[in-house]
Design goal:
Length: 309
């Protein structure tokens, strides 16, 4: 099968952890070990989050007082290259002889997307409220609550087109493990003359993964995180893990826009537009998620009894 795998931010940095290189490298190794079985048996295209990393790069850029700071599209490219390098190297170590390629990926967005007027994508660390508000005043940030703290939020326009799609398909057809569209891809717009330039935004990686999965004709889209799957009535006494559910039924349920909501929308979009399945589950259970033994599987129609855990 041809699989598109989107790794959540927990693949590199978990909530509350310091953003040290050794910590991130350890988590990359764990992620690659979990995916190695899939890579042996299937064509694999991997995307990943970059929220913590691009936020930290933005903080580092702010500390440089020699001139204008780097825009978010450039910081996104930096984080995509760094994370892609770590993933590719680990795959080469875990699967000697297997070809791996990391590709910086530009993703076109609409310059008039309403997301530019309503930033919702969290990046960077979680701050205590007082500290976050101080930084926001000093740097012109917008904030959103995250647990008991706050995080910076930036525009997250919808992905429309992957500019490097032909190259990605050639690599997949040649049996190469492809790592691309990290952090949702580098956000760009194309003007009326066909010229490309970056914009200040961070694209949701799950929505980009769904677009990629559709465009490369994937048989499955895996959205892997630290949760065992999608829960109905999450946080309530009667919460239940959904094991398998048609996309139309899943869309009828309500999910938090800041956490599971984008994954649900991405999974439903792919299943509705494509010919394959989507699944949400824990990274450590990747092989079992593909086999249908773990996680939540989203399908076009019901194929088994009602899926409650």
């Amino acid at each position: 099968m041809r699989l598109v795998v989107a790794l959540g931010g927990n693949a590199l940095l978990r909530r509350g952890e310091r953003a040290d290189f050794d910590v991130q490298r350890r988590h990359v190794h764990e992620a690659v070990v979990a995916l190695a079985t899939l890579a042996r048996d299937h064509e694999l295209l991997i995307t990943h989050g970059n929220g913590p990393q691009v936020g930290l790069l933005a903080l580092q850029a702010e500390a440089y007082r020699g001139g204008p700071v780097f825009p978010l599209d450039v910081l996104g490219a930096e984080s995509e290259g760094m994370i892609g390098y770590l993933l590719a190297q680990e795959f080469e170590n875990v699967l000697p002889g297997r070809e791996v390629a990391t590709l910086l990926t530009q993703v076109e967005v609409d310059a008039h997307d309403p997301a530019f007027a309503r930033p919702t994508k969290p990046i960077g660390p979680v701050y205590e409220v007082e500290e976050g508000e101080r930084l926001a005043r000093a740097r012109g940030w917008l904030l959103a609550h995250d647990g008991n703290g706050v995080r910076r939020v930036v525009p997250s326009p919808l992905p429309r087109r992957v500019l490097e799609l032909r190259t990605i398909n050639r690599l997949l057809d040649a049996g190469v493990i492809v790592i691309c569209s990290g952090g949702g891809g580098i956000p760009v717009v194309v003007n009326g003359h066909g010229l490309v330039h970056g914009v200040e935004a961070v694209i949701d990686k799950d929505r980009s993964a769904a677009l990629l999965a559709t465009c490369v004709g994937a048989d499955g889209l895996l959205l892997l995180t630290d949760a065992p799957g999608i829960y109905a009535d999450f946080g309530a006494p009667g919460q239940r893990l959904l094991r398998e559910i048609p996309f139309e039924d899943l869309r009828a349920l309500a999910f938090d826009e800041g956490s599971m909501g984008p994954k649900v929308e991405a999974a439903c979009d792919f299943v509705e537009r494509g010919h394959g399945f989507a699944a949400v589950g824990a990274l450590a259970d990747a092989a079992a998620v593909v086999a249908g033994r773990a996680g939540t599987r989203i399908t076009r129609v019901a194929t088994m009894h009602p899926a409650h855990g």
